[in-house]
Structure to design on (575 residues):
């Protein structure tokens, strides 16, 4: 019997890392399996051209054409033996922005967990009561988490019968030494980035915040790519679930280390995300999300034992997922509404969370109407040939001055690509200098517009921005039309999200991404979803309010509205 062919080593020179590539496996697949990030907006399907690498040494088979200057697509490169490769600068640039902040909102601190410091009487021959019965009788509760039950005898005796018990409802979920910390983790699980907030559940103090890239990004930059991956392969769903869990565990580990705590101190995790992110983390079916009528498995809030999801915490720690609104509007938008409620109450307002999946709510005397706009990742640098995350060397600002383009990069480093805020700025500057016409065509029949050496916007890139912009603006227009509200009646526009925090508002108005309103009516509120999920972590009242807000939202599925295509096409041009 012949032995199976052996995997061969692939060395990633500019990372100092090595991975074992299986026979027939592309370099992109090998890197993804090894947890090595290569920019690949399409998830390795060979349609975006962003996963560029250069082969330093070794034999390989190329399944497609080479890129300029010897760069190759990792998803089309199959190593045939030991290889050394170099990743493009856009994949290796150190992340400089993972916006996790937002505008604080008032709420009553009232967590779902309770802390009890106890001194128990040790059992004796005259009092041989079972350990669990002894603890429950003292607490006045009726049940104990089964994982904790397995550790209970050792813990009680280790701590000399003086313990700190943590309960949630009628269940004991943790047992430790007196004075041990009881922590909570709030997570905004975005399509592109994940933000974490570590909170002391006894005092309400925020101990730290951190943002990272969502590890699911290696399966595609947009929701549709990930849903399709989960549908096409029996292992797809579990892979995406595990990737989300790894990201949350990474947030927990780094935040706890910074706070000189242990992930074993986390008694509860609260998570918000769009409906697809919610379902993928929870291990719920997503096939029905990928086809009309785009029905979620569940919209009400759900809870899991954290261990069931592969998440860290105390033995009986619980993960709470905020309620969803509809097929593509999830708990992240509910969290945004929760965090900003004091601002929009009593006003005609638009609440917009711009991202790979853009959610928009119109608040008026008619109630709350909500849509999801399939904007895709273009406005965050995805599906843009020179696009990248907000890292060192990313062009973040582009201006038209004295008849020429002026750029600014993050960290004032040499330019290696363009991040989201730079994408919108660039289109506005191109229009101002008449480098593209209103229809988006590059002037003079040119194929691209150079922003810096090696960084250029192609005609395909301009079209990607047009599609994203048209989807968002069509969603806004149809919300207004459905509710019979004129654009100038909007008193307030709240723009949420990490991308929204850095969006150039004047540029957004110039290209028609937003209705033309006075600048003073438009407010950027940062990561409001993160603030909202942190409120839900720390307050039962906020959870109840989130449920009420989700129920109030009237969800409109854009694709079912007969005027959507006409409105979308009308908004393709740059106004």
């Amino acid at each position: 019997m012949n032995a199976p062919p052996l995997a061969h080593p692939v060395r990633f020179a500019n990372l100092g890392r090595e991975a074992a590539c299986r026979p027939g496996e592309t370099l992109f697949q090998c890197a993804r399996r090894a947890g090595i990030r290569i920019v690949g907006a399409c998830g390795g399907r060979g349609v975006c051209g962003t996963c560029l690498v250069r082969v330093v040494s070794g034999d390989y088979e190329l399944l497609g054409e080479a890129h300029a200057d010897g760069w190759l697509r990792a998803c089309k490169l199959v190593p045939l033996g030991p290889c050394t490769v170099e990743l493009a600068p856009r994949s290796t640039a150190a992340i400089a922005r993972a916006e996790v902040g937002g505008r604080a909102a008032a709420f009553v601190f009232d967590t779902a967990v309770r802390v009890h410091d106890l001194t128990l009487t040790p059992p004796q021959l005259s009092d041989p009561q079972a350990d669990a019965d002894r603890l429950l009788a003292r607490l006045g509760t009726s049940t104990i988490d089964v994982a904790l039950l397995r550790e209970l005898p050792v813990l009680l005796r280790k701590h000399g019968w003086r313990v700190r018990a943590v309960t949630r409802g009628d269940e004991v979920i943790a047992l430790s030494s007196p004075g041990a910390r009881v922590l909570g983790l709030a997570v905004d699980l975005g399509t592109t980035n994940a933000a974490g907030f570590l909170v002391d559940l006894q005092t309400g103090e925020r101990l730290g915040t951190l943002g990272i890239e969502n590890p699911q990004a290696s399966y595609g930059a947009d929701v549709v790519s990930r849903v399709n991956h989960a549908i096409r392969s029996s292992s797809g769903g579990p892979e995406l679930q595990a990737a989300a869990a790894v990201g949350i565990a990474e947030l927990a580990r780094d935040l706890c280390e910074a706070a000189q705590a242990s992930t074993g101190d986390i008694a509860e995790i609260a998570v918000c995300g769009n409906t697809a992110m919610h379902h993928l983390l929870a291990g719920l079916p997503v096939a029905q999300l990928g086809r009309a009528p785009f029905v979620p498995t569940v919209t009400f809030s759900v809870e899991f034992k954290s261990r069931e999801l592969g998440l860290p915490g105390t033995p009986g720690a619980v993960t709470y997922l905020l309620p969803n609104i509809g097929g593509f509007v999830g708990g992240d938008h509910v969290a945004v509404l929760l965090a900003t409620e004091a601002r929009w109450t009593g006003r005609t307002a638009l609440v917009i969370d711009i991202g790979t999946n853009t959610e928009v709510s119109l608040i008026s005397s008619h109630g709350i109407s909500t849509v999801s706009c399939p904007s895709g990742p273009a406005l965050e640098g995805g599906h843009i040939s020179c696009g990248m995350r907000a890292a060192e060397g990313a062009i973040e600002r582009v201006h038209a001055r004295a008849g020429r383009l002026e750029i600014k990069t993050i960290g004032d480093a040499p330019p290696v690509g363009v991040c989201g805020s730079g994408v919108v700025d660039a289109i506005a500057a191109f229009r101002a200098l008449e480098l593209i016409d209103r229809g988006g065509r590059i002037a003079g029949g040119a194929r691209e517009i150079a922003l810096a050496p090696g960084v250029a916007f192609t005609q395909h890139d301009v079209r990607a921005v047009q599609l994203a912009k048209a989807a968002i603006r069509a969603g806004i227009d149809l919300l207004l039309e459905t509710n019979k509200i004129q654009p100038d009646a909007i008193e307030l526009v709240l723009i949420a999200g990490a991308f929204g925090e850095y969006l150039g508002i004047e540029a957004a108005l110039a290209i028609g991404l937003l209705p033309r309103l006075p600048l003073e009516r438009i407010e950027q509120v940062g990561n409001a979803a993160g603030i909202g999920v942190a409120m839900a972590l720390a307050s039962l009242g906020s959870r109840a309010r989130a449920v009420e807000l989700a129920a109030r939202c009237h969800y409109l599925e854009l694709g079912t509205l007969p005027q959507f295509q006409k409105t979308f096409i009308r908004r393709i041009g740059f106004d």
Observations:
- The chain has a mean pLDDT of 92.
- Residues 459-482 form the longest helix (24 residues).
- Residues 8 and 411 are 38 Å apart (CA to CA).
- The radius of gyration is 26 Å.
